[in-house]
Each structure stands twice: as C-alpha cells, then as structure tokens.
C-alpha cells in the first residue's frame, strides 16, 4: 500500500482523509502547516497600527461595489 501524498492533496481531500484516519500524525502535521500558511497569507497582521487600520477601513468604505 502506498502512502498518500499529503502535500499534493486538496484541503478537502486532506480533511476527508483525517476524518477516516484520525491518528495519522503526518497528515495532521501537513494540515496544520497548510492552515498556518493560509493564515499568514490572508488578512492583516495583528500588530497593525491603528492609523493604518483606519486608512484601510476608510478605503474599503469608499470603494464602489
């Protein structure tokens, strides 16, 4: 039996695998690594200065949708 290639699984495939194999430590490690990478690439840093947040909010409010 070949081992799954966790790094190339979609997030959905990895979740399904984890539901079926809850004790698979390697799969959990890859899942949390991908999750932390996702968090790092989205949003704004928690230590963003208040003035910068205000600029971002005002720009978003002034955008036409």
Provide a descriptive summary of the structure in words.
There is one protein chain. With 65 residues, this protein is mostly helical. The protein has one domain (6-62). Helices cover 62% and strands 0% of the residues. It has helices spanning 11-20, 25-41, 50-62. Helix 1 runs antiparallel to helix 2. It is elongated.
Question: What would you say about this model in short?
Answer:
With 65 residues, the chain is an all-alpha fold.
Question: Could you describe the largest sheet, including whether it forms a barrel?
Answer: none
Structural class: mainly alpha
What is the succession of H and E elements? HHH
Would you identify the regions where 5 or more consecutive residues have pLDDT less than 50?
A: none
Shape: elongated
How much beta, percentage-wise?
A: under 5%
The overall strand count is 0
User: Could you tell me the mean pLDDT?
Assistant: 87
Provide the descriptors you would attach to this structure in a database record.
about 60 residues; mainly alpha
List the helices and strands and how they pair.
Elements: H1 11-20, H2 25-41, H3 50-62
Helix pairs in contact: 1-2
């Amino acid at each position: 039996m070949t081992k799954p290639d966790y790094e190339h699984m979609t997030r959905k495939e990895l979740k399904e695998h984890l539901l079926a194999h809850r004790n698979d430590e390697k799969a959990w490690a890859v899942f949390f690594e991908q999750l932390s990478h996702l968090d790092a690439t989205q949003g704004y840093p928690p230590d963003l200065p208040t003035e910068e947040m205000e600029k971002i909010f005002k720009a978003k409010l002034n955008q036409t949708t």
